[in-house]
Every structure is written in structure tokens, then in C-alpha cells.
Amino acid sequence: MIQVEKLSYGFPAKDLYKDISFKLETGQHCALIGSNGSGKSTLVDMLIHPDDYLYDGKIIKEEGCRIGYASQFSVRDKAQEHTVFEFLSEKFLENERNIASVCEEMAAAENMEAAFEKYQALLDLHDAMDGDHYESNIQKQLYVAGMREIKETKLSQISGGEYKILQIMREMLLSPNLLILDEPDVFLDFANLNSLCQLVNGYQGTLLVITHNRYLLNHCFNKILHLENGDVQEYDGNYTEYRCTILKEKLELKLQNLAEQEAIEHTAELVDTLRHRATVMVNPVIGRSVNAKQSQLDRLRARQIKAPFIEVREPEIVLPLVEPEAEQTVLSITDYQVIVGKSLLENVSFQLLAGEKAAIVGANGTGKTTLIRDILENRHPSIRIDENTSYACLSQLQGENIDESKTVYQIMLEDGFGCEESVRRYLSKYCLEGDLLNQKAGQLSGGEQNLLQIARLANSDAQLLILDEPTSHLDIYAQIALEKAVAAYKGAVLMVSHDFYLAANCADYVLYVEDHTVRRMRTRTFRKMVYDKYFDQKYLEIDKKKQEIEKNITSAFKKNDLAAVEKLCRQLEELS
After folding, report:
1. From CA 208, how far away is CA 226, in angstroms rounded?
2. CB of 460 within 8 A of CB of 401?
């Protein structure tokens, strides 16, 4: 299908890939994972447009290979009045019109051979897309995604999450040889995430999907490509199996490393002893022994296991250190309503006390982000933020909080972070390293922009954090680090999130958006509702146990308790 051989590429400030090689076989569903800024989106763009890049190595595609692509950003023309069915039919009807047009050309063509070649190419495309059955195929896909009821709905009337699913569906219907999806899950509510999972699992073609979503990773893929530190690791199997393999390999490497360290220390002692003897007694035989042992020591050091590929550093996220005043109301909403063309929210009332953490959860397009924006502007008559409470926000629309034309260092300097060296040390904790300081904010990946926003939040004295989709674009390591930081933060948090783990693990309660209003819900009730309506309860409970075991494994590695690591790895395998 597609093969990459010894690919090397980078920017002046950063090498992205160093002699990486991998292969995608026909029919595989492959997840491309890796830390924020490791070059995943650039890599897929190189696969689609290799002629746009100057690189070393080879990108080999089968002749006539058609690649489909759906971006992580869903952009649409709000004025479009196409129905959902018309939107999904568009490419098929366009190809039919082109065929009819070429037929007319052929009737009057002097160069029949050229016209016939054009006709044949369009006919081949029609066959490849299964154009004769596109209407029934659209019906099937809408059924799989649970979206049959919106078939005749205008695009302008559907939510952003629904539109994103339709973009993916449209690419799938065109039956490319390889379909690439870049973070298709970002900002999707639970229902749309479930639809995406069904579409991916029902797709018969070859898929390459960039994702950090734990639910998708555990349910949808039979191959993993892990891009990290300029290298790639290829694994045939699902993500759970890959995690178990990584941890077992890490244990073996640690044991091997300890054995090597013992051999190095022993040889180093011999070298020191022989060198001392050679100093006391001028003896050529001892001198030659010193040289031989030194060479042996050099060889041992050269072949010892370096920090292995599997050692991916988790960001050290620490949110502002504050001490809340007990029972103080930091935010109050009274009889709030919002009308955007139609009534989105009405009769919304709730309070947030100092130190409380609340997650606003609801379907795409129900007005959550509009509510957050009104809270941040703090000019709405129904909204009151305590005048003595300092607050800060993280926006899902990075450009609102970051001037993309400025370098990272300029932004941090304006925030009062001090000299360049102190900024570098600070950002290093957030895994924002390399020559990132001199990059413009607009050149950062989505995950890097989110981490930069979080780093700036951490330097504030905010007693209230307002977070809009804070885990969007973050890699798994950063997601887990943010969960820990939010749980440890003593101030108040109001967060909009479709991340089940963040809401379930960090919120004291959930503000659930439903039927044009918001109702308070206990976290336990929220979990049960999610189990009943969207995901399998057994899976979520087992996944939580896996996360706990992996945390314990990390802790045991730090203590060098390798016996405990081995025991915990066996427990993880049994759960998997």
C-alpha cells in the first residue's frame, strides 16, 4: 500500500525524523501516536504531498494510490443550505457531471484518443468509489453512525460535532486506497465519539489515524505507529497489547541496564587499581593491562542501554498554589439565557464555591462555549464573578489567548517569566523543549499551543480556572499530567469537557446541559448515565483499573522495585 524507507526531515530549529521506516498494508487500521510536537501531522502531510517537501529517503506509494484526508479542524460555510444527503452526494454527482461533459466532448472531438483517456479515468474513479450504489452506501453509513434522522437536515442546522462526523463519512464513501484522519475525535461529544468509533470499525479500507483518545485507541486499531524523538516504533496489534509489551520491554531493559552498570563499576575499579600499580611500579605489562581494561570499559559504556525509546517524559504540570476561603461564592449564574438564532440555553442558575471543581458536559452545539465566553467577558447581567477572586482561562480556540505572530519567548517575556534561561527551564517541565522559544506561536502544533496556555496559567495567581476543552490536542502523557494537576489544585475550576476521564476523575459534580438548561448531577450519577447511554461499563471500569496499575508501575520503577514492576505487569496483562 504505502512504504517509508529511511526518511529524514526537519526544520532549521528541529530535526523531526532520522532514518525512519515503516509500512502500511492494505486493510490495516493504524493509529499514529506520539508526544505533542513530535511531527505526526507533518508526517501525514508528507505522505499526501511528498513533492512539497525536501527530504532524504523514500516514500513509496502503489501506482494510482488515492489518499483521502479529513483535517482535525472542521470548517464550514454557515450559509450553506445543502442537506446532509446532498453534502454526502456532492462528489459523486460532480463526477457524473464530468463524465457527461466528456461524453459530449467525445462526440465532437478530433483527438478521440485523448478524450477517451479522460473518459476512462473518470469511469475508473466512478467504479473505485462504487458510484452506481452511492445512494444506498450513504444510507448505510448514516445508519452505522446513528444519524439517519438528519438525512434531510440543512448543514447550517447541525452541530459542529455532527458536521465533523459527516466530513469523515464523506471521505469514507469515496473509498480511497488510504484514508488519513487527523485527530478526528477532538471536541466530539460522547454520542458523536460513539458514532466515530462505529464508522472506523465498520470501514473496510486502510486507515491511518492520528489520535490521543484512549477510547478509540482501545477499540479501533490493529496496528500502532509510535513516533517519538525522531524515531518510529512499529507494532502489529492493538494499543492495550502495545502498552503491555512496552512495560515488559522496559523492565527487561532496566534489568539489563543494572547488569551492565555492575560490569562497568567492576571494570572501572580494576582500571583504577591497575592504574595505581602502574604509577607505583614502572612495568610495561601492567601498562598494557591498564590499556586493555580501559578499552573494555569504553566498550561496555558504548553499548550500555541509553534512555530507551519507551521512556517518554510526562509533563510536570503544577497549577497556581492558592488557599481558598471556605464557603466563599466565586461565581454565580442566575436565570442565564442565550439565543443564537434559536434558544440554546434558558433558566440556567448555579453557584461555584471556592475550591469546588465542576465539569460542564453536554452534546455538541448546546451553548457550552457561548456560556464560557459570557462568563469570561463578565458583562452579562446574569453572571457575577466575585470581585476579590482572580481568574484565568484556557480557550479551545488557541488564537484567542495567544498572539500567533509572536515567538514563544516574546509571549513568555510579556507574562513576566524573566530571562531566556529561566524560561527554557520552565518550559522544559512542560516538555516544550528544543529551539521552541524562537518559534512563532502559530507554528506550534495544537498540543504544544495547549501546553503553552497551561504553562502560562500555572504562572498566574488565579483562584478560579475556567477551562474550555483543556485536554484537546494533548497527548496521553499530558492528559494524565493535567488530570493530576487539576485534582491537586486547591482553587475553583469550571471546565467544559468531553473527556470522560477528566470529568469523572477530577470534578466534584457535573453541570449537565440538556433540554436547553443546565442541571447539577453527582459524579456517580454522571458515570452511570455515560455507562447506560454511550459506553460499556465493564470497559470503563477495567480501563480505570489499568490506569491505576500503570501509575503503580511508574512509581515502582522510580523506586527501582523491579520485583513489584514484574508482578504489576502480570496483573496488567491479565486485565488486558
Report:
1. 12
2. no
Task: Give the Cα separation of 473 and 171 in Å (integer).
Answer: 22
By the 8 A CB rule, do 330 and 444 touch? no
Mapping DSSP to helix (H, G, I), strand (E, B) and coil, where does residue 383 land?
strand
55-59, 109-113, 190-194 — which one is most confidently predicted on average?
55-59
Q: What angle do CA 253, 254, 260 make, to 5 degrees?
A: 85
Distance CA 118, CA 125 (A): 11
DSSP 525: H
Q: Which three cell numbers stand for residue 415?
A: 507574562
Q: Provide the residue type at 363 as one letter.
A: A
By DSSP bridging, strand 383-385 and strand 329-340 are: antiparallel
Q: Are strands 56-61 and 67-70 parallel, antiparallel or unpaired?
A: unpaired
Q: Residues 202-258: pLDDT tens digits?
A: 999 999 999 999 889 988 999 999 998 888 888 888 888 888 888 887 787 777 767
Distances (CA, A) of 378 to 9, 129, 381, 384, 454: 47, 51, 8, 7, 22
Distance of CA 124 to the CA centre of its chain: 36
- Region of 372 please: left (phi>0), alpha (psi -120 to 50) or beta: alpha
What DSSP character marks residue 399? G
Most distant CA pair in the chain, distance: 103
Q: Based on the number of CB atoms within 10 Å of its own CB, is 427 exposed (0-12), middle (13-18) or buried (19 or more)?
A: buried
DSSP class per residue in 553-566? HHHHHHTT-HHHHH
Determine the distance from the C-alpha atom of residue 18 to the mean position of all C-alpha atoms in its chain, rounded to a whole number. 22
Helix axes 84-108, 134-144, angle to 10 degrees: 160
**Cell numbers standing for residue 289:** 593491562
176/184 Cα distance (integer angstroms): 17
Angle at 436 between CA 433 and CA 437, to 5 degrees: 110
d(CA 350, CA 335): 9
Q: Is the Cβ–Cβ distance between 336 and 384 less than 8 Å?
A: no
Measure the CA–CA gap between 444 and 37, rounded to whole angstroms: 7
Q: What is the DSSP string of 155-168?
A: GGGS-HHHHHHHHH
Residue 463 has pLDDT above 60, yes or no: yes
Judged on CB neighbours under 10 Å (0-12, 13-18, 19+), 52 is exposed
pTM of the full structure: 0.83
DSSP assignment letter at 311: -
Nearest 5°: the CA angle 423, 429, 434 is: 65
Query: Is residue 413 within 8 Å of residue 422, measured between CB atoms?
Result: no
The whole-chain average pLDDT of the chain stands at 85
CA distance 386 to 108: 77
